[in-house]
Write a structure and sequence with these properties.
With about 280 residues, this protein is α/β, with parallel strands linked by helices. The chain has one domain: TIM Barrel, CATH 3.20.20. The chain is built from 13 helices and ten strands. The protein has an eight-stranded parallel β-barrel, surrounded by six helices. It has a two-stranded antiparallel ribbon with strand order 6-7. The longest helix has 23 residues. The chain is globular, with a radius of gyration of 18 Å. The two termini are about 25 Å apart. The mean pLDDT is about 95. Bound molecules: the ligand O=c1ccn([C@@H]2O[C@H](COP(=O)(O)O)[C@@H](O)[C@H]2O)c(=O)[nH]1. Ligand LLZGTKA7 binds next to strand 10 and helix 12. Its EC number is 4.1.1.23. It is an enzyme of class 4 (lyase). It comes from Dyadobacter luticola.
Length: about 280
């Protein structure tokens, strides 16, 4: 998916919502446990209920890996089921020495190797340019680099001063010099709203993946006011607050209501701040 295609979808749906598929076998409604693939059945119903209100889906790979081969099978079926117009994000936070990163990239981007064909993957920048390069070599795919994460521990390293700037600012600046940097997005937590203005000065045009609204308490209005650019430039993720809005036969209907409410709020902010 190109930058332009993503922006057009945002305009069409009046939404920049990413639904997080953090599907936990211990949390899904009991009646689904009687189906052959409860994780996929849950995801399928969530996708059917929310597709009109979001532009992206983000399965967090941990929830699938934890189940072994069965989890990978559910993940593969989920990825095949997500409508092609939605940007798919493998939230895997990978990154290693070059040849190992190459295999991680094949895992998520090369269906002939792994059966998975994601549009994008989250990558940790800590090991530097050669650890990210193999992902960027897949020309029609996106790398979503961790910049300033939503958790309290983001202060431990990401905010440390290195020279004249903090480490996360260096990640933003240095990664701009890498080949294929036009296909980088950045993770910035919704809980970090005070930093969005500064971040936009460094990377005015890039898309930001913003987790942390809903269960983590981030403020959608602030994120939109300070983070939006002229092409929206935001994908705001909500996982638990949507997919676990209900826990019974009506779970998908409840998820739909949550996604719809966020979309309606986003429509207001698109009118107000995307110009
Ligand atoms: O900085 C980060 C990076 C990734 N995440 C992930 O996003 C979702 C958030 O889930 P919620 O239930 O909406 O809180 C989850 O998969 C995290 O691993 C993040 O929260 N912060």
């Amino acid at each position: 998916m190109t930058y332009k295609e993503l922006y057009q979808q945002i305009l069409r749906k009046k939404s920049y919502l990413c639904v997080g598929l953090d599907t936990d076998i211990r949390k899904i409604p009991a009646h689904l446990l009687r189906t052959p693939d409860p994780i996929f059945e849950f995801n399928k119903q969530i996708i059917d209920a929310t597709a009109d209100f979001c532009v992206s889906y983000k399965p967090n790979i941990a929830f699938y890996e934890a189940l072994g081969p069965k989890g990978w099978e559910s993940l593969q079926k989920t990825i095949e089921y997500i409508p092609k117009e939605h940007l798919s994000i493998a939230d895997a936070k990978r990154g290693d020495i070059g040849n190992t990163s190459g295999l991680y990239a094949r895992t998520f981007f090369d269906p002939s190797s792994s059966g998975l064909d994601f549009d994008s993957v989250t990558v940790a920048p800590y090991m530097g340019s050669d650890s990210v390069k193999p992902f960027l070599e897949f020309e029609n795919k996106w790398v979503i680099l961790l910049a300033l994460t939503s958790n309290p521990g983001s202060a431990d390293f990401q905010r440390l001063n290195v020279g004249n700037a903090s480490l996360f600012e260096e990640v933003l600046k240095t990664s701009q010099t890498w080949a294929g940097s036009d296909r980088i997005m950045y993770v910035v937590g919704a809980t970090q709203a005070s930093e969005f203005e500064k971040i936009r000065q460094i990377i005015p045009d890039h898309f930001l993946l913003v987790p942390g609204v809903g269960a983590q308490g981030g403020n959608l209005e602030e994120v939109s006011r300070f983070g939006m650019n002229t092409s929206c430039g935001l994908l705001v993720n909500a996982s638990r607050s949507i997919i676990y809005a209900g826990n019974d036969y009506d779970f998908a209907q409840k998820a739909k209501q949550e996604a719809s409410a966020l979309q309606q709020e986003m429509e207001i902010y698109l009118d107000k701040y995307c110009n």
